[in-house]
Design brief:
Elements (H helix, E strand, L loop, with lengths): L11 H18 L6 H8 L3 H7 L3 H10 L16 H17 L3 H14 L1 H23 L5 H21 L5 H12 L24
Helix pairs in contact: 1-2, 1-4, 2-3, 4-6, 4-7, 5-6, 5-7, 5-8, 5-9, 6-7, 7-8, 8-9
């Protein structure tokens, strides 16, 4: 569904051509080498036509992403029959995208687009981030739905985004551990941390 915007009425044919061009050029050149001029040339429209509808490159990319015209392979959670592993693999793939050559610029651009439009931010969260998780996460949680399922999805995504922003490493084993915590399968008998505290705050006995 196209984002609702004020301003001149957009030609649907031109809008689709622009989004198609943005998706193609992103795949060919990456985010950092994507320009409004290049998008306009590929779409066969004037550059000012794009600027009238999307003030920044990130706004074009956000709408192209929302309409499924780029990063298709990152959208769906795999289904191998092991929901725990599938969720961890999808989260690891999402994290790896952030660490790629164009991922950081893309992330900054999408954050800016979301900050500039509440509708864009809501749809990016609901349709691009949370939506792919819902079915597999619900299965892993025994059919949980509603607000509890949304909270679990937010917790998974929030942890990954926090690690991405802090530029910390986050390996597949870390993703599996995170998924286990959300699913209530965490090992409560792990070794004490460097602080000497066990889970729950009790101190490990000295040897």
């Amino acid at each position: 569904m196209p984002l609702k915007r004020s301003g001149p009425v957009r030609s649907e044919a031109a809008r689709l051509a622009i989004l198609e061009a943005a998706g193609e050029l992103f795949a060919e050149r990456g985010y950092e080498h994507l320009t409004m001029e290049g998008i306009a040339r590929r779409a066969g429209v004037g550059k000012q036509t794009i600027y009238r509808w999307w003030p920044h490159k990130g706004d074009v990319i956000a709408e192209a992403l929302l309409e499924g015209r780029l990063l298709e392979r990152h959208r769906d959670v795999p289904n191998t029959g092991d929901a725990r592993a599938d969720l961890a693999t999808w989260l690891a793939d999402l994290f790896a995208l952030r660490a790629s050559a164009d991922g950081e610029g893309l992330l900054r651009s999408l954050v800016a687009a979301a900050a500039g439009s509440a509708e864009t931010g809501r749809r990016l969260r609901a349709e691009v981030l949370a939506a792919p998780l819902m079915t597999r996460l619900s299965e892993a949680l025994g059919g949980t739905t509603g607000k509890t399922l949304e909270a679990a999805a937010d917790a998974l995504l929030g942890a990954v985004i926090l690690r991405a922003l802090s530029r910390e490493e986050f390996e597949l084993d870390d993703m599996l551990r995170l998924v286990d915590v959300i699913l209530g399968r965490a090992d409560r008998d792990e070794a004490p941390s460097e602080t000497g505290l066990r889970p729950g705050g009790s101190r490990a006995p000295s040897r």
